[in-house]
Amino acid sequence: MDPVALSIANMLVGNEKGKEGLEITLSGPEWRFLGPAIVALTGAPMDFTLDGSAIPMWTRKHIKAGQKLKIGKTTGGGCRSYLAVYGGFPKVADYFGSKSTSPLVAIGGYQGRALAPGDLLAMVDEIPKNLGGHPSVPEHLRPQYPTSWEIMAMPGPHQEGFLTEEDVDMIYSSELKVSHNASRSGIRLVPPRAPQWSRKDGGEGGSHPSNLVEYGYPLGTLNWTGDDPCIFPIDCPNFGGFLSSTTVIRADWWKLGQIKAGNTMQYKRVSLEDALNLRKKVEEYLVAIQKAIESGSFEGVQALETTYSPSGDYGKAVVAERPARGNEPQVRYRQGGDDHLLVEYGNEQFDLNHRCRVTALEKVLRGPDAPAWLKETLTNTVGCCTSLLLFYDGAKLDRERLVKYLQSLEDQLGDLSKIKVPCRRFRLPLSFESKEQTEATQRYMETQRPHAPYLPITSNSRRRTTPSRRTS
User: Which residue ranges are recorded for the region named Disordered (predicted)?
Assistant: First the structure.
């Protein structure tokens, strides 16, 4: 959730900045070390003791076998701290190339869940002798965790044509309060009023103006489930049918890891150029901290900026369009922050031909003949109904170049009205009620949409919405 704090914790103990560590939310555990270790705790301020004596955060600490390390509750702003251990946790298995835990789906990390009393984590056997000393990041250079945040974001993927100008002004000019529903999967906000919307319903997407035909969700996007806004952080769903109006830029993702219930925040609109400049500053800050830890001198290191004066040229959600040509549908290219681009076919209506086109485009982008520069920067794709969401490294790939390449692929794909797509048929059992369905419904009501005509889902509600079928 907070890559800046985790990166610095790893630097302090001598790890690569992307090494696995432990994320502690609001309050932490007590650890007994069975062997020597080097640790560092960064992030939100928390009570931090070794054998009952207070020790500083943001500092390299050498642990002896048998010592007890305790992390208590938060004592200030922010809500997450990060414990790095030299060498990481070598016995925790990789899952799809990562050791991160996704508790909602019970995969990754340590048995797919949060750590519990009695868990045993293996460390490396030997500590290098060159990692002596106790380097510490000075307090004035540590990221600040206020109770009122400024968060930089870019319009899109859906804004003009969906929200009124008054709605857009409300999003960017009002203080939004963080509700008690704030977690790794969603940070629900309390706006000053409900949107007025610029349309009466969601067309084929649904009866509410916030409904859309399903599409991929960018990380950090502000998603509207009905009239309720929710920021989607790192463990969010990757697709769905609710409108997303603005997306937090990558440079400010770390703030989403520290903002907590009761805090307030205000969006600031920035351009793509602003977003990339801020991203560069975060990287420069981390590089400077790394060099200072290695050299032992923090002289000349600049603190991480938490506020910014945007250029004002923030543009629109739709960055390019391609008109329909014969059997080739209209294409809109929508931005989702500085790392996502949504390729949308047609005009907000489901069409199986468009879904086939999404499949064909995705196949070309992920195929062996894709250019090397694309393979190096395209990290993920989410194809859904009439659109394809691209996850790419915006710091390495120029968006204009990507859009022009995508437009050229439309000419290459041509008329696909008679395309044949390989399909598979799955036969699955039908379950109306189960423990997993009940838990999923409850989780949806708590974190997404608490009130709807179809909630809570029960056998009776399914019976009411299922056409009767008589058999003789």
Answer: 437-472
| Annotated domain spans of the chain | 3-88+123-141, 148-295, 318-413, 435-463
Q: Does the pLDDT at position 471 exceed 60?
A: no
Question: DSSP per residue over 38-69, as a string?
Answer: EEEEEES-EEEEETTEE--SSB-EEE-TT-EE
Question: What is the distance between the alpha carbons of residues 9 and 57, in angstroms, rounded to a whole number?
Answer: 9
94-108, 162-176, 182-196, 372-386: least confident range: 94-108
Angle at alpha carbon of residue 70, lines to 95 and 33, rounded to 5° = 65
Predicted local distance difference test score (pLDDT) of residue 307: 80
Please name the fold of domain 318-413: Gyrase A; domain 2 (3.30.1360)
Percentage of the chain exceeding pLDDT 70? 97
pLDDT at 466: 62
The token duo for 444 is 């949806």
Element (H, E) at 242: strand 239-248
Has residue 103 got a pLDDT over 90?
Answer: no
Angle between helices 352-366 and 399-413 (to 10 degrees): 120
pTM of the model: 0.91
**Start-end of H helices in 367-434:** 372-377, 399-413
Burial class (CB in 10 A: 0-12, 13-18, 19+), 47: middle
